[in-house]
């Protein structure tokens, strides 16, 4: 058992009784009340658990909780904007809802984090760049066309918002 100190969605946290080998995903979901990152495969294959770790998207199921010591994690919950209780969805989240890119929703949080990162790095991605960026995020439901629509819409919104 160990204690892990980290920053999550901007607040400093200390989590006790973390066991060796526990994943960052488990710690976020089961110990920190952040179920937004989904647990679908636990093998790094689906991307539904994607979070930012020091600003880089990673599969939280593949990161040991202890590796997050002293580091900064942002989950899909941390992308919502506005003060507690009055959060607004991030423009990327809105775009996914509007484009009809959310069916069962299991893949959505990971796609949103990944899309957020893509648009930050590349505000006007081509379809090929979108496909490449999202290649590690599996969706069983939507057939990806609507996801592409959502990413295009999110990029347009972001550009319009300056
Ligand atoms: S749950 Fe982490 S990649 Fe699937
Ligand atoms: S909406 Fe169901 S897996 Fe993508």
Automatic annotation (TrEMBL):
Stretches assigned to the 2Fe-2S ferredoxin-type domain: 2-79
Organism: Actinomadura coerulea
Superkingdom as given in the UniProt entry: Bacteria
Protein's name in the database: Carbon-monoxide dehydrogenase small subunit
EC number(s) reported in the record: 1.2.7.4
Signal sequence bounds: none
UniProt-listed Pfam families: Fer2 (PF00111), Fer2_2 (PF01799)
MF (Gene Ontology): 2 iron, 2 sulfur cluster binding; anaerobic carbon-monoxide dehydrogenase activity; metal ion binding
Keyword field: 2Fe-2S, Iron, Iron-sulfur, Metal-binding, Oxidoreductase
